[in-house]
Amino acid sequence: MTDRAQQIAERVERFVRDTVVPYESDPRCGSHGPSDELVMEMREKARAADVLTPHILDDGSHLTQVETALVLRKSGLSPLGPLAVNTMAPDEGNMYLLGKVGSPEQKAHYLKPLLEGRARSAFFMTEPASEGGAGSDPSMMRTTCRKDGNHWVINGRKAFITGADGAKVGIVMAKSDEGACMFLVDLPDPAIRIERVLDTIDSSMPGGHSIIAIENLRVPADQMLGHAGEGFKYAQIRLSPARLSHCMRWLGSCTRAHEIALDYANRRQAFGKSLIDHEGVGFMLAENLIDLKQCELMIDWCAGVLDGGSLGTTESSMAKVAVSEALMRIADRCVQVMGGTGVSRDTIVEQTFREVRAFRIYDGPTEVHKWSLAKKIKRDWKASHGH
User: Fold this and answer.
1) What is the rounded distance in angstroms from the CA atom of residue 132 to the CA atom of residue 75?
2) Which of 26, 31, 123, 233 has its CA 20 to 30 A from that of 349?
3) Which 3 state secondary structure label does DSSP give 144?
4) Can you give the pTM of this predicted structure?
5) Residue 253 to residues 17, 55, 247, 312, 354: CA-CA distances in angstroms?
């Protein structure tokens, strides 16, 4: 690990523990995520502490993925931490994509306010399952775009669009005759209508998750991100590291949940001794320690693959499965160790459990990644046996 990453991570951890943690009981944290007022208040403090958008340097370059893993893990020590220091999804992934694919003009207009933490963004890809739209299988996309002079006209419906309510920047995926396309849009736009914000198990992301109707949205041709027909390629550029970033952040949250459960187990007495001295409890905490270390090693390995220049789709799938499932075990054990207190909102343990349960689904459910890996195993076997 580099000295610069260690120094940034230490500043981020200190800021999250000292400044952000007290906000966890703020009434502005609602069922559809923290309010924008709260987010901007925390970001002003992060800006003053020089920890805002810490994974992107002043010259616009990014920390390596291995370095980012350490910094994002520290930001995740509170569910509010990534929001406060501007490392949260979907903005973190959208910034990465814009930095890789956006034109200089697009970066100046759309990326700059995101980097500065003055705007939020939304990624419009997933569609309603009830209408046969795209979910884990993006080839099922039903949202269309057609050229009309110097504009593109987009129509369709989207679902589970995180942060759409209150976002200023949108990345919209649609299909044309050439294939999948991505467009940058300024929000709000009257042609992009929020039908409703869903009530979901998680509550860490501002704006919640919305059902969206897109009706005759006209987008200037120069707001296409990259080239027509290459939308799926750009989606992979975004999603492979984004899956890993989720692993980094939620590992931080589960590390903190483990700290809370460990403290509880040492302070709480039952049947004449501390809870931790009962094997049933002590063993759960020991298993947590093992899973936490395995998650860290898996993340660092996958980050190294991405730093080596590979797209890392296979590796990020393996990390998403291994880490999300291990974090679920950790969060569940923390709740169990703490009993009734674990399911109350007196600590973040209850929220961490809910957030990690949702993480097992978004950015590809465990089963989809396993299916994809199994297909690769079969392809590799065929290739090695001359089939």
Assistant:
1) 37
2) 123
3) strand
4) 0.94
5) 12, 18, 10, 24, 11
β-sheet bridge partners, residue 194: 212
189, two tokens: 């736009």
Total Cβ atoms within 10 A of residue 269: 10
Contact 152, 214 (CB under 8 A): no
Angle at CA of residue 204, ends 115 and 34, nearest 5°: 75
Q: Does the N-terminal peptide bond of residue 90 adopt cis geometry, omega within 30 degrees of 0?
A: yes
Query: What pLDDT is attached to residue 239?
Result: 82
Region 121-228: CATH code: 2.40.110.10
Residue entry with tokens 């903005």: 91
Displacement of CA 124 from its chain's centroid (Å): 14
Evaluate if residue 169 carries a pLDDT over 90. yes
The pair of structure tokens assigned to 373 is 């890996």
**Is the confidence at residue 58, as pLDDT, over 90?**
no
Asked if 72 and 16 touch (Cβ cutoff 8 Å), the reply is no
Task: Express each pLDDT in 6-49 by its tens digit.
Answer: 999 999 999 999 999 999 999 999 999 999 999 999 999 999 99
Among 53-67, 197-211, 214-228, the least confident range:
53-67
What's the CA gap between 86 and 322, in Å, rounded?
26
Collapsing DSSP states into helix, strand and coil, what is residue 227?
coil
Residue 102 to residue 109: CA distance in whole angstroms? 10
Number of C-alpha atoms within 13 angstroms, CB side, residue 140? Answer: 14
Single-letter code of the amino acid located at 315: E
Residue type at position 128: P
The domains of the chain are located at 3-88, 121-228, 232-380
CATH of span 232-380: 1.20.140.10
Beta pairing, strands 144-148 & 151-162: antiparallel
Per-residue pLDDT of 334-344, as tens digits, reads 999 999 999 99
Q: Across residues 245-259, what is the average pLDDT?
A: 97
For 331-372, how does the pLDDT look when each residue is reduced to its tens digit (9 = 90+)?
A: 999 999 999 999 999 999 999 999 999 999 999 899 999 999
Measured CA to CA, the distance from residue 80 to residue 61 in angstroms comes to 25
Those residues with Cβ within 8 angstroms of residue 247's Cβ, 6 or more apart along the chain or in another chain: 295, 298, 299, 319, 320, 323, 324, 327
Residues of the chain with pLDDT > 70, as a percent, come to: 100
